[in-house]
Amino acid sequence: MSDKKTIRVRDVMKTDFHTIDGKCTVTEAVREMKKHKISMLIVEKVHDNDEYGVINAGIIAKQVLAKNKAPERVNVYEINEKPLISVSPDMDIRYCSRLFARYGLMRAPVMENGKIVGVVSPIQLVLDGLCELSGVC
Fold first, then answer.
1. Are 97 and 122 in contact (CB under 8 A)?
2. Domain 9-134 homologous superfamily, CATH
3. Are 109 and 9 within 8 A, CB to CB?
4. Taking the CB of the first residue and of the last residue of the chain, which one, N or C, has fewer CB atoms within 10 A?
5. Tens of pLDDT, residue by residue, the chain (137 residues)
6. DSSP of 2-51
């Protein structure tokens, strides 16, 4: 039996994430980001067989700003990235960290029973999880 403490993703994830309808324009998405002081929105599913997507400042910069497209004429669904790599709330943060490293992820939705229940990033894994594991923070 292992004496190692296990910290789960649910222990460090943020539950205050924001979503947006894919039919919204990039202008509306940017307004939402500014309003909530965030840089990422989860794009809602259109139907049960659809997948969640993500739009963030980097995607907007590459797909709209750099290409000189009018943000009020581009819909979120046109540029969002999907499907997303998601994690389970019961995943050990060490495995979650390996997944982030392997795929170069900066954030991942936390999925439970087909629904997003939170979002996790390396910041939470290190500042909350590693500090709890090591007991030095």
1. yes
2. CBS-domain (3.10.580.10)
3. no
4. N
5. 455 789 999 999 999 999 999 999 999 999 999 999 999 999 999 999 999 999 999 999 999 999 999 999 999 999 999 999 999 999 999 999 999 999 999 999 999 999 999 999 998 888 888 877 777 67
6. ------BHHHH-B----EE-TTSBHHHHHHHHHHHT-SEEEEPPSSTTS-
